[in-house]
Amino acid sequence: MNETNKYRTAGVDIDAGNELVSRLRPHIAAGEQTLATKGAALLSGLGGFAAALRPPANIKNPVLMASTDGVGTKVELLTQHDRLETAGIDVVAMCVNDLLCGGAQPLFFLDYYACGKLSPTAAARVVTGVAEGCRQANCALVGGETAEMPGVYDTDKFDVAGFAVGMVDESAIIRPQAVQVGDALIAIASSGAHSNGYSLIRHILKQTPPIESEQKWLHEELLYPTRIYCQSIGALSAVCQLHGLAHITGGGLVENLPRTLPQDTAAQVNTAAHPRSRLFNWLKTAGEISEDEMWRVFNCGIGMVAVVAEKKSSLALSCLQENGETAWRLGTVVANSGKPHVLFES
């Protein structure tokens, strides 16, 4: 068959896609080893039409949980500052942290990378980050999709999304019904803004550029990867029953914490319990953002909130700190006659 380049002329390079696949094979092999440690097995993966997986046999009543998410407009800053691997870590983090809130530990992950013109080197850097995120989450990268879409994306633009599947025994699913009035709210620190609020962040940077003395630390903190909590939450759940767990993403504490509470309760939060970092202080001042909007757009330094029995609060704090987390008592679950919401006090 005579080779033609018409598809390449139209903007899609099949050879570049094949080159990328060859670069990803070691990451898939590493994922097979990860599954083996969980008592699972990847029966078919890269190169087939779908990944086939044998689940762990040690879960009595297995329930699958699934989550999907992306990195959002943070990819613009990451591209600008050549932090492509961070995008891969971020997309894993946003998905697997959601799984934790249902009680599941992640089992495997797939990514979707779309771009205007495929650079195997750039795409491989992003997926290398995905593989690193999977390593931190102790889950397997079993495959993904690469889409070269000229005319939809500019030549130098890309987006990445992810899909995570986890497993939990039915008896260990975290449900709002377990939360009781008087339960303790334990905040677990974020590693910055994570992957939310970046459209507003980029707007602030454009309207109020940081002065020279602020630029280095500000950009470092804005570009830091989203923290992955699988190890520490796994350790916590082994010593303390989790009545609730909230991943603080888009919508901030105001929108996400009520998602783990029963209808007749509210979260009473002490905003003075932990000092706000310089990153969020800068964003509030530079962007002239109200306190209400800060709590609704950003995580304000809180990546997760665990709900535990009051008598277990000290144990929970000690466990999280022993596992490398910065954690503090954020507040208490209180009775409420309306829908679940957050009551702020300082």
From TrEMBL:
Pathway: Purine metabolism; IMP biosynthesis via de novo pathway; 5-amino-1-(5-phospho-D-ribosyl)imidazole from N(2)-formyl-N(1)-(5-phospho-D-ribosyl)glycinamide: step 2/2. One of its GO terms (molecular function) is phosphoribosylformylglycinamidine cyclo-ligase activity. InterPro entries: PurM-like_C_dom (IPR010918), PurM-like_C_sf (IPR036676), PurM-like_N (IPR016188), PurM-like_N_sf (IPR036921), PurM_cligase (IPR004733). It is found in: Cytoplasm. This is Phosphoribosylformylglycinamidine cyclo-ligase. The gene is purM. Belongs to the AIR synthase family. The keyword Nucleotide-binding applies. Residues 61-168 form the PurM-like N-terminal domain. It comes from Candidatus Doriopsillibacter californiensis.
